[in-house]
Write a structure and sequence with these properties.
There is one protein chain. This protein is an all-alpha fold and 200 residues long. The protein folds into 2 domains: 75 residues, 3-Layer(aba) Sandwich (Rossmann fold), CATH 3.40.50.300; 78 residues, no CATH class. The chain is built from 6 helices and no strands. The two termini are 39 Å apart. The N terminus is likely disordered.
Length: 200
């Protein structure tokens, strides 16, 4: 079992946050300890009641140092732990609008775009298993079509094809379907030519 801390929630202690930062960043122990405490305090503030939360002022973080000492990497890894969007900004490119440089409001727009992209990726991960199961069912339906309803079933017009939803599949049909599902998951059907099967 992996000893990696659980970074999916706010239960990490400052010591665990520092250990996670140590996996990616060498040195800067004082900085890592300071940001770990600040992040933990923000997590704890979010658990307070709304009326008490307004009384506890969150502490922002300002890191100062020469280029290459790890400021950006600490901030990037901290954002990953907090499941928050991260945008790196070169301040020299942003000045007051109407002179030179970019509009400072672009920073907020970039941050919002990053947050939307993060949400979309997380949504994909959440529905991945369900999407794979539905894709399997569609492929299995093409390989082993479900039984059609007898004549006089619930159709929508002359010559329409209907599926007998109420009929239970036979044990042989179920066994065959499960066998095909195992072959599909093991990749045994990938190299076979399936005429007429359309992948959408």
């Amino acid at each position: 079992m992996s000893s990696k801390p659980d970074t999916s929630n706010s239960t990490m202690t400052p010591r665990e946050i520092v250990q996670e930062l140590d996996r990616h960043i060498v040195g800067q122990h004082a900085a890592k300890r300071a940001v770990a405490i600040a992040l933990r305090n923000r997590w704890r503030r979010m658990q307070l009641q709304p009326d008490l939360r307004d009384e506890v002022m969150p502490k922002n973080i300002l890191m100062i140092g020469p280029t290459g000492v790890g400021k950006t990497e600490i901030a990037r890894r901290l954002a990953t732990l907090a499941n928050a969007p991260f945008v790196k900004v070169e301040a020299t490119r942003f000045t007051e609008v109407g002179y030179v440089g970019k509009d400072v409001e672009q920073i907020v727009r970039d941050l919002a775009d990053t947050a939307v992209k993060m949400y979309r990726e997380q949504a994909k991960v959440r529905v991945r298993t369900q999407a794979e199961e539905r894709a399997e069912d569609r492929i299995l339906d093409a390989l082993l079509p479900r039984r059609e309803a007898p004549a006089g079933g619930f159709g929508f017009g002359a010559g329409s094809t209907t599926v007998d939803i109420g009929a239970e599949p036979s044990s042989k049909e179920t066994e065959t379907r499960q066998k095909l599902r195992r072959q599909l998951r093991n990749g045994e059907l990938a190299a076979q030519l399936l005429p007429g099967l359309r992948f959408l």
